[in-house]
Structures are given as C-alpha cells and as structure tokens.
C-alpha cells in the first residue's frame, strides 16, 4: 500500500475510534462541552475550520484519484482475451482490486469526517438545550413556589381575619403587628436566599467570562505574533 493510502487508512481508523468515543452513552453532552471548552482543546479548536477544510481537500483529492484508478483498470480487463492473456488479466484484476480498496477507504474516511463534524455540532447544541431546560425548570419551580406561597398567604389571611373577630381591639392590633413582623421576617429570609443564589450565579458567570477572556487573549497574542512575523518577512 502506497504511503498516501496508508495515511488515509490510518486516518479512517482514527475517525472510527473518535466516533465510538463520541457515542459513549455514559458521557453526557454537558461533560463533552466542558471538555471542548478546556484550554488545551480551545487552543487546538481555534483553527478547526482550517484543519477541516484542509483534510476535506486532501480526502476529496484522494477520492477522485481512486475513482480515476478504478475507471482506469476496469476497461482493460473487459477488452482482454481471457484464454491467451491470463497473466495480464490477473495483474489487471489485482490492480483493480487495489483501486477499489482505495476507493472504499477514501470514501469512508471522507464520510466519517462529515459525521464527526455533525456529531460535534449536535453534542454542543444538546448541551446548550440541556442548560436552557434546566434554567426553565428552575424558573417554573420558583413560579410554582411563589404561587403556592400566595395561596397559603391568602388562606392564612382568611383564617386570621376569623381569629381576629374574637379578640379585643388592642389584642387584635398586637396580633396583626406580630403577624406582619413574621411575614417581613419570612420575606427577608427569602430575599437573602435569593441574593445568595444570584451571587453564586454571578460568580459562575464571572468565572466563565474570565476563562473566555483568557482564551481570546491567547488567540489575540497568537495572531499578533503571526502578524509580526509576516511584517518582518515583508520588510526583509
């Protein structure tokens, strides 16, 4: 097998391994998204569109060449006398088999390359949808809790109004003040809890923002270095 076809075959086996890893059921899309957003993977994936286009061009070129080889070695075997040229037929069939093998290898590698690209996109989208669903679920739970709290407050108000009817005006005033103080205390606790949750959310957002800023800063430094090198080459 020639060097280029050995490379294509090795690349195809690597693609099969990547597809199997991406299809593992116990690795969630959120975990994959964390891996994709890591610093090492981000540095590699910053030029992913270049890698994708380069490999697409190489695989397409080899795929077209394999089609040409198949067409080249198919015609002679159809026009050769099988009785008097058996050796030539065997050689032609051997070359045709190799051309067909290269055709399938390059075609399958090209197909798997698109499959991997699509899998990565779907995993990223599924992770985003999962995060959105989790946020909507928390909002629905908070809205349900608020509605339940309002219903309980309404029932408590009705019950308390009935209890106040049997009290003296002074006792009724003190009881109402006590209930208002309790309600204010409960609201203060809820606001404190909500403030803590908001603070944790802001911390996580700040952390993600810092990570994204670091990644963009690294990309800016790389581009700046590349521009400086290109400028120095032009000056020379």
List keywords for this structure.
single chain, 236 residues, mainly alpha, 2 domains, 0% strand
How would you describe this structure to a colleague?
With 236 residues, the protein is an all-alpha fold. Helix content is 90%, strand content 0%. It has 6 helices and no strands. Helix 2 crosses helix 5 (86-164). The model has no long low-confidence stretch (mean pLDDT 77).
In short:
The protein is an all-alpha fold and about 240 residues long. It has helices at about 5-20, 30-35, 40-45, 50-80, 85-165, 170-235.
Question: How large, in whole angstroms, is the Cα Rg?
Answer: 35 Å
Tell me the overall shape.
elongated
Largest sheet: none
Order of helices and strands: HHHHHH
Quickly count the domains. 2
Helix content: over 70%
Number of strands: 0
Class based on secondary structure composition and strand pairing: mainly alpha
Q: What is the subunit arrangement here?
A: single chain
Low-confidence stretches: none
How much of the sequence lies in strands comes to: under 5%
Mean pLDDT: 77
Q: What's the total helix number?
A: 6
Terminal Cα separation, in Å? 44 Å
